[in-house]
Amino acid sequence: MVSYSHLANTIKPLLMSEKSDYIVTTFIDFFRLPHDMPHYEDSMKKPDKIEQIQSLEAAINEAIDDRRFFSYIQLHEFEALLFSSNKGFEYYFSEELAAKTASIISSYDNPEDINTSPEGAPSKRLLAIKSDYNKVLEGNLIALEIGIKSILEKCPRFAEWIKTIIEKSE
Questions:
Q1: Of 42, 56, 84, 129, which sits with the fewest C-beta atoms within 10 Å of its C-beta?
Q2: Rounded to an integer, what distance in angstroms lies between the CA atom of residue 78 and that of residue 35?
Q3: Each residue's pLDDT tens digit, 142-157
Q4: Of 75, 65, 57, 149, nearest in space to 112 by CA
Q5: What is the structure's pLDDT at 76?
Q6: What is the arithmetic mean of pLDDT over 36-56?
Q7: What is the mean pLDDT of residues 26-35?
Q8: How far apart are CA 69 and CA 135, in angstroms?
Q9: Cα gap 162→167, rounded to integer Å
Q10: Are 156 and 72 contacting, i.e. CB atoms less than 8 angstroms apart?
Q11: In this predicted structure, what is the pLDDT of residue 122?
């Protein structure tokens, strides 16, 4: 995502229909979020990352202003969700590499917290373990092997987003 206007210009046409039987949401990575997001400066003054994200989500929701829309900002990239279980890594990686991912998993109660520095980002950790890690292909296959249930059990913010999707869809 290059800018807020790009995001808004992608979302607004989706909401042009007068139908009410659908919802639109986002899955945006907090890292490298464009600084032109609504109320970005005020949001960044919040004391912790989750409060910053919640403030940004509220600002985006207010700016889009459609009951069928709600935003979700992932604290750390998609790969954080893959550390919910070692099952996918055990299936797609060698035993030696899966042992390394197991070590990371055992170091965090919540996979959503994995990111201690730019080099500590989940995808960077995977690239350090497996230099040819393919985010699009392997990331999706690993997620499928882990299963949504394990991800929801281990990742509370992500689980809340999915719960909101389900509630708004009913």
A1: 42
A2: 20
A3: 999 999 999 999 999 9
A4: 75
A5: 87
A6: 97
A7: 90
A8: 27
A9: 9
A10: no
A11: 93
**Which segments of 94-134 does DSSP mark as H helices, in order?**
95-106, 122-129
Q: The tokens 């750390």 sit on which residue?
A: 76
CA-based end-to-end distance of the chain:
29
In a 3-state reduction of DSSP, which class is residue 50?
Answer: helix
Query: What is the average pLDDT score of the chain?
Result: 94
Q: What is the dihedral of CA 167, 24, 114, 50, to 10 degrees?
A: -80
Task: Note the Cα 155 to chain centre separation in Å.
Answer: 10
Which phi and psi (to 5°) does residue 65 adopt?
55, 60
| Distance in angstroms (rounded) separating the CA atoms of residues 99 and 52 | 34
Task: State which H helix or E strand residue 25 sits in.
Answer: strand 24-25
